[in-house]
């Protein structure tokens, strides 16, 4: 494991890891299914169970029809006048920060999406403050209508602009770094959050253009490279990240080891009361071991889930080889390199990661990436404003 002066190497998983890869609606439907099954089996008997199930389905359909008219509605993230009164957990100060950005990252240290954002910030040598969110109570983000992490709060002229979703955060900041005449709060308008229904008719908000950089007049010439970068970033979110959970919670023993490692590197002992930490480890490990079996099916992973992990890594490495150069971006990492690295970093202490190093040729690219990030190589490309 790598150490660094900034401590950004700490890799954990989301304590509520199910929510990385499983939509909130899917999760609650799994829990409700378990709950319904217990009701049927344990106490009330088969006919009553069917009645409850039917009633529940009717209720869900009714609920869905009530939200249906919201389809297409845009949710605006408003600028906050005041900084939320939440204590900062720690600061990451970069001596090479060439930007004027003032950022607070609300995160779970172990969440792959949060790791992705930190990887981006660290590569470009941008300083930021961190608020570690309590994954059980989430009171640190009670000021936000968006209930997931990461959330990045950027100080702007008129207050504090919340930015939601890791890929949107990265695209927006990358657009800003390319042309700093653009204002953060203006750039937000290019990434509207639109209401739509998922496969379970549950209302959710989808962020438009989240893999797109806003170039304005300075359109890039190498459009094929831009498109490739975009596709790989989407692959990370849509496919690759889904191979992680079933791999780190493969057996109950592995799930416990993973959660204990999260607790250790995430300093849960410091941030959360003992009872909460024990709940997070015990319930978390057991629940995720169970849920990861469903995730394995949902995302069509191979029977031996390690094979799916290696397949994903090999697909990525083959594409780099085909392109030529050390990174997908050639001689320097692009946003897709940072995305793949970010999510892999989040399993660095798990046996799945060690197995991946032993069974693929990942280490060459991974070590080169670690060096780039620890040296904040991206800061070379940023000029002082
Ligand atoms: N698409 C989002 C996904 C973020 C996400 O699912 N985050 C998880 C943690 S890893 C979360 O906050 N889930 C809600 C919860 O923990 O209550 C992104 O890329 O930022």
Brief sketch in words of this structure:
With 385 residues, this protein is an alpha+beta fold.
Describe this structure in words.
It is found in: Endomembrane system. There is one protein chain. By secondary structure, the chain is of the alpha+beta class. It has a domain at 241-377: Glutathione S-transferase Yfyf (Class Pi), Chain A, domain 2 (Up-down Bundle), CATH 1.20.1050.10. It is 50% helix and 10% strand. It has helices at 18-21, 24-44, 46-67, 112-123, 166-178, 184-187, 223-238, 244-248, 252-265, 268-271, 274-298, 305-323, 335-345, 351-359, 362-374; strands spanning 74-75, 90-92, 103-107, 128-132, 151-156, 159-164, 193-197, 203-207. Helix 4 runs parallel beside helix 5. Mean pLDDT is 84; it is low at 1-50. Glutathione (GSH) binds at residues 14, 16, 19-20, 108, 111, 113, 135, 147-150, 165-167.
